[in-house]
Specification:
By secondary structure, this protein is an alpha/beta fold. The chain has one domain: Rossmann fold. 39% of the residues lie in helices and 30% in strands. The protein is built from six helices and ten strands. It has a five-stranded mixed beta barrel, surrounded by four helices. Helix 1 (9-18) packs parallel to helix 6. The radius of gyration is 17 Å and the shape is globular. It starts with a strand and ends with a helix. Adenine binds next to strand 5, strand 9, strand 10 and helix 6.
């Protein structure tokens, strides 16, 4: 079974609407919905915002369901000038940028015994790119796809100085509030994962307005690409 998690109701709405044969169960106030989408058995969850919610959600998902891999989807702020609203970011690494043991000589984001960069599953990254290409390649006005580092922290960032720091410290391309918590939970449970985000805002002073006005459109984009990723996973399984 494939786990699909998004933080906000808008980010999972299209998945809910398009799933078939659904059943729900509630754990820790979160509603897990099982069913099928694009030929795959999935469990869908709206985790709520932030790293704590994402951690609880992911651990329960792994404990209660027969999870082979997890896809976290939703929106992100851009940290680089060439990534605009509607473009897509796929994690090759995720980092908890606000984890700070620098007082003890460690680097920002570095956890004892784990390190700082948590690697997403390379096969899922590749299949996500493949899914994206099968929708958008050769299309006029296609969004861009970038594979890169996504940083996560418990703050909505709307600050130019923070963007520069995040870019320089982590080589990050996008910021959000859950991916690295999911990545860490998957790492310690040995479950492959990927984070796929559509850019909703510039993480600068007008990020709030940008985010609110683009939430629906960006969620539609992410849904399309995750659906295509599920098809790519089905094709890969059929070819094996
Ligand atoms: N998710 C989408 N945009 C974001 C931002 N600017 N900061 C944190 N999380 C986000």
């Amino acid at each position: 079974m494939i786990g699909i998690i998004g933080a906000m109701a808008e980010e999972v709405a299209l998945f809910r609407e398009n799933m078939e044969s659904t059943e729900t169960s509630t754990h820790a106030r979160m509603e897990y919905m099982t069913g099928s989408l694009k030929g795959q058995q999935i469990v869908l969850l709206q985790s709520g915002i932030g790293k704590v919610n994402a951690t609880i959600a992911t651990q329960i998902m792994i404990d209660k369901f027969d999870i082979e891999r997890i896809i976290f989807t939703g929106l992100a702020g851009s940290l680089v000038p060439n990534l605009a609203r509607g473009d897509v970011v796929v994690s090759n690494y995720v980092v908890q940028y606000d984890f700070d043991l620098t007082t003890f000589g460690r680097r920002h984001g570095e956890l004892p015994d784990v390190g700082r960069m948590i690697e997403a599953d390379p096969t899922l990254v590749k299949l996500t790119c493949f899914g994206f290409d099968s929708i958008f390649k050769y299309e006029k006005d296609s969004p861009q796809l970038v594979v890169g580092t996504i940083v996560s922290g418990d703050r909505f960032v709307s600050d130019e100085r923070k963007i520069e720091w995040l870019q320089r410290e982590f080589g990050a391309v996008a910021i959000e509030m859950e991916g690295a918590a999911v990545g860490y939970t998957c790492l310690v449970n040995e479950v492959p994962f990927v984070v796929l985000r559509t850019i909703s805002d510039s993480a600068s002073s007008n990020a709030k307005d940008e985010f609110e006005s683009y939430l629906q459109q960006a969620s539609n984009n992410s849904f399309k690409i995750v659906s295509s990723l599920l098809e790519a996973i089905s094709h890969k399984a059929a070819a094996e």
